[in-house]
């Protein structure tokens, strides 16, 4: 099929705005995210081309496991309705996710039937790449703005969006003890915990000094320990693919000299030096608190340390799952876990995607999800030198895999779309062309 410019634009813009939910427009007096509108158009296009396609869906073990995961999630949701009966706290969580499960499952099936849509998927990943970079740049701007004007930029610019937030969270940017945690075009800096490593790993492969510096700067201003840990782990599994033998000593020397000059140049500016060091100190304190000291028994520690107790309390529900949004039930309702989690919102998701999916979709559901994710990483790891799209898919999957150990990303839109399009790219044996 000849590339359709309208399709390319919609898929590209969807990729850009999937990481920017706070960018909205007013539709009949209601704020609607630009991404929601673009996703609706993308879904309609996928449906149109699926019905127009003459071929049947080709299913292999990876796509079958992904479909199976969604089906298990639906079964777990039904089981959860039975388990919790008339407990509105958990029922509301379960019911809120069911439409998303159907939506993402049908999108997967539609795109799988569209055999010659590789150009559209490539456009999505290119847009996603630029969207990630925009988030990193914006987080740095947020940090510098805060230390200049003692005000939070997102709260000032997106005032109407702030009004839609819960009464106990009428702010967008987190500031604690005079230290900002920039979040980019999100309300939660945890999303930079995935986005920063994606660009960092990509930049290492491309040996792009500017993107490496941008990633590290965003890391400091976001204070994301998830981003730090994910970047390190993703780098470690990628070492064998960096082709270090092709890097000349002269290039290494020039790069190190450039880094030295940039760092010295920046730190001679009093304002920049003070801003960076203040956030770097706060980031160090958060890291040691989360991963070294367990004295406060915060949520991340509790959800990991008391996992066996939660599994025992949950009983048969751990096998079947009880629906998305119910993963904290075996913790917060467990009398044997006598720890105050100091929750701001209930239900409170565990600080791990994998613990969440264990209780949400059941043991088999977690295995299916891991099989899809790890198999996809292995597939694209062998193809990272084919072109831009393969590399950004690989770095994105690495970000998803490792960030899942440190935070919960339950059916997060950009992660679902990355998995969907990477599975389709593999399933249809599409070798994306580098269109840069």
Q: Any overview of this molecule?
A:
By secondary structure, the chain is mainly α. It has one domain (5-427). Helices cover 67% and strands 3% of the residues. The chain contains 19 helices and four strands. The strands form two sheets. The chain has a two-stranded antiparallel ribbon with strand order 1-2. A two-stranded antiparallel ribbon has the order 3-4. Strand 1 and strand 2 form a beta hairpin. Helix 4 (88-113) runs parallel beside helix 19 (413-427) and helix 5 (118-149) packs across helix 18. The longest helix has 32 residues, at 118-149. The two termini are 20 Å apart. Keywords: Membrane, Transmembrane, Transmembrane helix. The chain crosses the membrane at residues 5-25, 31-51, 63-84, 90-112, 119-138, 183-205, 211-237, 249-268, 354-379, 391-407, 413-432.
Summarize the structure.
With 436 residues, the chain is mainly alpha-helical.
List the helices and strands and how they pair.
Layout: H1 5-17, E1 24-27, E2 30-33, H2 34-52, H3 61-84, H4 88-113, H5 118-149, H6 153-157, H7 159-162, E3 174-176, E4 179-181, H8 192-206, H9 209-222, H10 225-238, H11 249-267, H12 270-291, H13 299-305, H14 307-314, H15 317-320, H16 329-332, H17 353-381, H18 388-403, H19 413-427
Antiparallel strand pairs: 1-2, 3-4
Question: Which features would summarize this protein structure in a list?
Answer:
3% strand, two-stranded antiparallel ribbon, single chain, globular, 436 residues, 4 strands
Determine the fraction of residues in helical runs and give it as a percent range.
Answer: 55-70%
**Which spans have pLDDT < 50 for at least 5 consecutive residues?**
244-250, 283-288, 429-436
SS summary, helix count: 19
- Average pLDDT, rounded to a whole number, is 83
Work out the radius of gyration. 22 Å
Termini separation comes to 20 Å
Biggest sheet layout: 2 strands, antiparallel
């Amino acid at each position: 099929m000849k590339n359709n410019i309208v399709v390319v634009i919609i898929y590209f813009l969807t990729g850009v705005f999937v990481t920017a939910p706070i960018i909205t427009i007013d539709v009949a007096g209601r704020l609607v995210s630009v991404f929601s509108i673009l996703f609706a158009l993308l879904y309609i296009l996928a449906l149109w081309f699926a019905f127009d396609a003459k071929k049947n869906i080709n299913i292999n073990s990876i796509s079958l496991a992904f479909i199976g995961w969604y089906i298990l999630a639906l079964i777990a949701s039904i089981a959860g309705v039975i388990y919790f009966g008339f407990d509105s706290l958990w029922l509301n969580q379960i019911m809120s996710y069911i439409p998303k499960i159907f939506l993402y499952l049908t999108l997967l099936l539609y795109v799988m039937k569209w055999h010659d849509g590789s150009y559209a998927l490539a456009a999505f990943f290119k847009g996603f790449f630029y969207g990630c970079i925009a988030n990193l740049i914006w987080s740095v701007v947020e940090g510098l703005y805060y230390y200049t004007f003692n005000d939070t930029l997102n709260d000032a610019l997106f005032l109407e969006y702030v009004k839609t937030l819960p009464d106990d969270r009428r702010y967008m940017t987190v500031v604690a003890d005079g230290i900002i945690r920039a979040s980019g075009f999100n309300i939660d800096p945890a999303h930079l915990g995935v986005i920063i490593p994606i660009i960092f790993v990509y930049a290492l492969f491309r040996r792009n000094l500017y993107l490496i510096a941008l990633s590290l700067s965003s890391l400091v201003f976001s204070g994301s320990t998830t981003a730090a840990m994910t970047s390190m782990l993703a780098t470690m599994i990628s070492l064998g693919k960096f082709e270090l033998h092709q890097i000349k000593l002269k290039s290494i020397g020039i790069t190190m000299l450039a880094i030295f000059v940039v760092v010295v140049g920046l730190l001679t500016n009093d304002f920049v030096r003070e801003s960076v060091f203040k956030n770097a100190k706060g980031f160090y304190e958060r890291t040691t608190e989360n991963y070294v000291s367990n004295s406060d028994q915060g949520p991340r520690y509790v959800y990991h340390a008391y996992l066996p107790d939660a599994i025992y309390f949950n009983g048969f529900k751990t096998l079947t799952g009880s629906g998305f949004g119910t993963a904290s039930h075996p913790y917060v309702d467990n009398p044997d876990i006598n720890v105050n989690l100091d929750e701001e919102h209930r239900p409170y998701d565990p600080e791990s995607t994998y613990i969440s999916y264990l209780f949400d979709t059941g043991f088999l559901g977690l295995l299916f999800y891991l099989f899809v994710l790890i198999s996809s990483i292995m597939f694209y790891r062998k193809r990272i030198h084919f072109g831009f799209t393969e590399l950004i898919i690989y770095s994105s999957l690495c970000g998803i895999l490792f960030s899942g150990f440190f935070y919960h990303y339950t059916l997060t839109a950009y992660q679902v779309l990355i998995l969907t399009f990477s599975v389709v790219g593999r399933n249809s044996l599409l070798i994306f062309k580098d269109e840069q």
